[in-house]
Amino acid sequence: MLQLSNVLQNRPILSLRTGTAVATATAPIINPNNLKIEGFFCNDRFDKKRLVLLSQDIRDVIAQGIVVNDHDVLSEPGELVRLKKVLELNFTLVGKPVETVSKQKVGKVGDYAVEVSSMYIQKLYVSRSVLKSLTAGSLSVDRTQINEITNRRIIINDLEGKVPAHAAVTA
């Protein structure tokens, strides 16, 4: 099921063992290479430390928060050797400019939708300028339309399919 990004941010992390909140998920850790949420930065309820919850340790996402087995699944960022490069990138998706392959500016990422079972980002919702939003409306970009992701911008396929000049017209 697709969920918007705000459903996953600033949510309590609930322990199945104790039945209480053990932390609060503050920000997602996004891998720009495959648009997967690898985990979440969270504030520990007990130590007030900044810890990491890996997405593979999430049991379920419910209306009350994010469900995990226990407090023990939260890790120190320095302990996560495989995620070291992704953590160093500190990649954020919201606010990134979106352009087409032909260098046409489309807008900025305003929100995104995540498939909760796999934690892959499936859709980007692009906020357009006031003039473009009045004439063309808002834009939703599927992950298959993304051509390249850099630290500065997201490049998508051209929006309008161009018909070749020599194409035959049929009635």
Brief summary:
Helix content is 7%, strand content 44%. With 171 residues, it is mainly beta.
Can you walk me through this structure?
It is a single chain. The protein has 2 domains: 2-89, Roll (SH3 type barrels); 97-156, SH3 type barrels (Roll). 7% of the residues lie in helices and 44% in strands. It contains 2 helices and 14 strands. Strands 1, 9, 10, 11, 12, 13 and 14 form a 7-stranded mixed β-sheet that branches. It has a 7-stranded mixed β-sheet with strand order 6-7-2-3-4-5-8, with no helix packed on it. Strand 2 (11-15) and strand 3 (21-31) form a beta hairpin.
Number of discrete domains: 2
Overall mean pLDDT: 87
Low-confidence stretches: 162-171
Report the portion of residues in β strands: 35-45%
Characteristic key phrases:
171 residues, mainly beta, SH3 type barrels, 7-stranded mixed β-sheet, 2 helices, 7% helix, elongated, disordered C terminus
Compile the SSE list and pairings.
Elements: E1 2-4, E2 11-15, E3 21-31, E4 36-44, E5 50-54, E6 60-62, E7 65-68, E8 74-75, H1 84-89, E9 97-100, E10 105-115, E11 120-127, H2 130-135, E12 139-142, E13 146-149, E14 154-156
Parallel strand pairs: 2-7, 9-14
Antiparallel strand pairs: 1-10, 2-3, 3-4, 4-5, 5-8, 6-7, 9-10, 10-11, 11-12, 13-14
